[in-house]
């Protein structure tokens, strides 16, 4: 498994991030960038010309990760040449009136099931209920297949996100690559670092991922009360104070972050489900806790692999973490680097939602406000 990585900025153009090597016959190129960079036909054609046989998969972001750099308004292209693994790609457009669960089901069924080791999915980040999408995917993937990925971003604007699959780039797209073969090793880690505060409340009115009432009161009004002057900056300000959600009878919580607010309906739309009857609590992050969470996610991802280090680590971190860490955001990526080692290539993006199992043996689910890491390597044939 060989990697070649390039980083593009307006001021410097394309720069080779990896050591120069012979031309790769890449089967897959992961591309993360700003919406404007992704829509630049010249840039996309340059990538396609460099790797004419490769599947291109990517999305718009709330920040791009290349090595230990975090940039905005840039483009990161990571070309992967597998030795023992084959690649399939599929993409679907959202159908008006179709549930996210049905969309996930439709995408999963588009892949051949035999020998499917891992599915990496990128989804529209505004129009999709991530919880339902993941449930639809998991219900129709082979039980031994692991699933990771994320929801595309749009900075802190929350207006429109884009997904790329080969020649198609558009909002409302859900795309994935299936990785096939028993030589591929996949590690996964997903952790947050947020701490709950304030009173616990019960969701008394919600529909799927739209929240209306907490303890019989307007959820939006309560949220604004906690935000104070920052309420004027919703929905972006809500990223600083996500919700911890504990389902009835569940032993652990999930974190949910706001995508939009509706003043007329006094409602808030989240990236994943906020079911009636669930107990919620506001959360806040500190610099040290968030960086420690990223480090722990990296350690967890390595626990799934054999002794050899990963060749590639795909980092998907939430935009809310970036807003808290601000100019020190690269320190969470540097924390990951300290765990995986210098020989591992790092790529990824800041997202509107992360997809991964919460722990070994668990099904994949949607997370918010986590650092989610997918590590990949191929096990060499014994000599």
Layout of helices and strands, plus pairs?
Layout lengths: L1 E8 L3 E4 L11 E6 L1 H4 L2 H10 L4 E6 L3 E3 L2 E3 L3 E7 L4 E8 L6 H10 L6 E8 L6 H11 L5 E6 L11 E3 L2 E3 L2 E8 L3 E8 L2 E14 L2 E5 L2 E2 H9 L15 E4 L7 E3 L1 E5 L4 E4 L8 E7 L1 H17 L8 E7 H7 L4 H11 L4 E7 L1 E5 L6 E4 L3 E8 L5
Parallel strand pairs: 3-4, 9-10, 23-24
Antiparallel strand pairs: 1-2, 1-7, 3-7, 4-11, 5-6, 5-24, 8-13, 9-13, 10-25, 11-12, 14-27, 15-16, 15-22, 16-17, 16-21, 18-19, 18-22, 20-21, 23-27, 25-26
Largest sheet: 8 strands, antiparallel
Outline: globular
Q: Separation of termini? A: 17 Å
Number of helices: 8
Which structural category do the helix and sheet elements fall into? alpha+beta
Domain FIST C-domain: 219-358
Organism: Almyronema epifaneia S1
Protein name: FIST signal transduction protein
Pfam family, one: FIST
Structure, briefly:
The protein is of the alpha+beta class. Helix content is 21%, strand content 41%. The chain has two domains: 2-191 and 288-378, no CATH class; 194-284, no CATH class.
How does this structure look, described?
21% of the residues lie in helices and 41% in strands. It is α+β, with helices and mostly antiparallel strands and 383 residues long. The protein folds into two domains: 2-191 and 288-378, no CATH class; 194-284, no CATH class. The strands form four sheets. Strands 15, 16, 17, 18, 19, 20, 21 and 22 form an eight-stranded antiparallel β-sheet that branches. A seven-stranded mixed β-sheet has the order 2-1-7-3-4-11-12. A six-stranded mixed β-sheet has the order 6-5-24-23-27-14. β20 and β21 form a beta hairpin. The longest helix is centred in the last third of the chain and has 17 residues, at 287-303. It is globular, with a radius of gyration of 20 Å.
């Amino acid at each position: 498994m060989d990697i070649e990585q390039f980083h593009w900025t307006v001021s410097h153009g394309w720069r080779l991030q990896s050591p120069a090597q012979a031309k790769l016959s890449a089967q897959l190129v992961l591309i993360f960038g700003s919406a404007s960079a992704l829509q630049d036909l010249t840039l996309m054609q340059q990538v396609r010309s460099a790797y004419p046989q490769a599947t291109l998969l990517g999305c718009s972001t709330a920040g791009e990760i290349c090595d230990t750099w975090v940039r905005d308004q840039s483009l990161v292209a990571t070309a992967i040449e597998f030795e023992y693994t084959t690649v399939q790609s599929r993409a679907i457009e959202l159908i008006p009136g179709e549930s996210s669960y049905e969309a996930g089901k439709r995408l999963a069924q588009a892949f051949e099931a035999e020998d499917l080791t891992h599915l990496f999915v990128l989804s529209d980040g505004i129009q999709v209920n991530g919880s339902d999408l993941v449930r639809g995917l998991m219900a129709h993937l082979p039980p031994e297949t692991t699933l990771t990925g994320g929801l595309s971003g749009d900075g802190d604007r929350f207006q429109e996100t884009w997904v790329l699959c080969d020649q198609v780039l558009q909002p409302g797209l859900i795309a994935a690559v299936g990785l096939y073969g028993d030589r591929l090793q996949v590690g996964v880690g997903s952790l947050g670092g947020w701490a709950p505060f304030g009173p616990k409340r019960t969701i008394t009115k919600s529909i799927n991922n739209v929240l209306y009432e907490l303890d019989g009161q307007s959820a939006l009004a309560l949220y604004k009360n906690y935000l104070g002057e920052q309420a004027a900056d919703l929905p972006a300000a809500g990223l600083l104070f996500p919700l911890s959600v504990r389902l009835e009878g569940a032993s652990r919580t999930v974190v949910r972050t706001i995508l939009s607010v509706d003043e007329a309906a006094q409602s808030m739309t989240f990236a994943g489900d906020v079911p009636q009857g669930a107990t919620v609590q506001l959360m806040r992050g500190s610099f040290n806790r968030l960086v420690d969470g990223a480090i722990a996610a990296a350690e967890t991802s390595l626990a799934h692999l054999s002794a050899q280090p990963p060749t590639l680590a795909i980092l998907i971190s939430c935009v809310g973490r970036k807003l808290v860490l601000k100019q020190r955001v690269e320190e969470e990526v540097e924390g990951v680097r300290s765990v995986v080692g210098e020989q591992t290539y790092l790529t990824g993006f800041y997202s509107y939602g992360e997809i991964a199992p919460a722990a070994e043996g668990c099904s994949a689910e949607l997370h918010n406000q986590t650092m989610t890491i997918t590590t990949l390597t191929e096990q060499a044939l014994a000599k």
